[in-house]
Amino acid sequence: MRLLRVKLHQALANYRKPMNYGFVDTYPLPPFSTVKGWFHYVIEATEYRPLNMCIQGSVPTVFMDLQTMIKFDRIRDNKKKNVTDPRPRLEGFKRAFSTSPTYVANIFENDLTIYFQSDQKLLDRFEENILVVDFPSMGRREDLVRIDDVRFVDLEERTFTGRNYHKIDHGIYLNRETANATGIEGINYRMNFKYRIVEGLRYFDKKDIVYVDTGIIDNASFFYDTEENNIVEMIGDYAQ
């Protein structure tokens, strides 16, 4: 199987989990929707393109950063008690500025390896544009990415059994069915993958994913990158 492999490095990153308030938590690796959005941005796509991905990486250090969050709240005037909300106002919108301390989880010095599978012309365009369209970032806009390597690689299918096992020593997202079948335990996520707009509202299609950063595979077959000593499982909606 021929894939496009991209090796990246981030000095600082936050891959924010949805519905986090008061504490901005992060996924251990960038979620599929983030990587898919980055791919579409780089190829300058004007419509959705099916894509399979395998996202891997190390999570050496996570630290907490204390930041000030600025948000808009409803004005809390009480005319009956002649009480006026003292916060600065956004005139015309009946909103007031408010601030609150917020802890943000940051991943420090993260190395990523991402495999892409899609139409060959789209992969070629991504390889050509990755350093041309804009400065690359992953997660927040300020989380810059250093591109260490971009190349096409041919993977072989390898069966791991008994003494010929494979040891997982860095983070990787696996399908939940794969993790269950191989007996590998990790952190279960139901991640957003793509969305549909129906009557102006976004409806997300989700995938059941397991994040694994340690384990032994001794009873399964995977595609294998011999250069990086990586098992590779493609997750997505691209059909060859």
How would you describe the overall organization of this protein?
The structure is a single chain. The protein has 240 residues and is mainly β. It has helices at residues 32-42, 120-129, 176-182; strands at 2-13, 23-24, 52-57, 61-74, 89-90, 95-117, 146-154, 156-168, 171-175, 187-198, 201-212, 215-225, 230-232, 235-236. 12% of the residues lie in helices and 52% in strands. β10 (187-198) and β11 (201-212) form a beta hairpin. The protein starts with a strand and ends with a strand. The mean pLDDT is 89.
Task: Provide a compact summary of the structure.
The chain has 240 residues and is mainly β.
Shape: elongated
Listing every helix as H and every strand as E from the N terminus to the C terminus, the arrangement reads EEHEEEEHEEEHEEEEE
Question: Helices and strands: which structural class?
Answer: mainly beta
First and last CA, distance: 11 Å
- What's the average pLDDT? 89
Strand content: over 45%
How would you characterize the largest beta sheet?
Answer: 11 strands, mixed
Give the beta-strand count.
Answer: 14
Q: What is the helical fraction, as a range of percent?
A: 10-25%
What is the tally of helical segments?
Answer: 3
Cα gyration radius (Å): 22 Å
Q: Enumerate the spans where pLDDT stays under 50 for 5 or more consecutive residues.
A: none
